[in-house]
């Protein structure tokens, strides 16, 4: 995934955090839960991207 995908993941993570906080401030448990889910989904995609990058680095190390 390139820069755009990484940027989208970061935007989703920040949006999830904002939604989670807003839900907490307004005592809206549904919004808070949706924000937490959105934030954790973005973190999971980011972790997957880190694994992909690490695998690519290992492959490059062996092909040199």
UniProtKB/TrEMBL annotation:
Biased composition (Basic and acidic residues): 42-64
Region (Disordered): 1-64
Entry protein name: CsbD family protein
Organism: Micromonospora reichwaldensis
């Amino acid at each position: 995934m390139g820069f755009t995908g990484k940027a989208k993941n970061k935007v989703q993570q920040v949006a999830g955090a904002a939604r989670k906080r807003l839900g907490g401030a307004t005592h809206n448990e549904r919004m808070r839960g949706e924000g937490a889910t959105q934030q954790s989904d973005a973190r999971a995609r980011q972790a997957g991207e880190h694994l992909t990058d690490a695998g690519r680095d290992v492959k490059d190390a062996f092909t040199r």
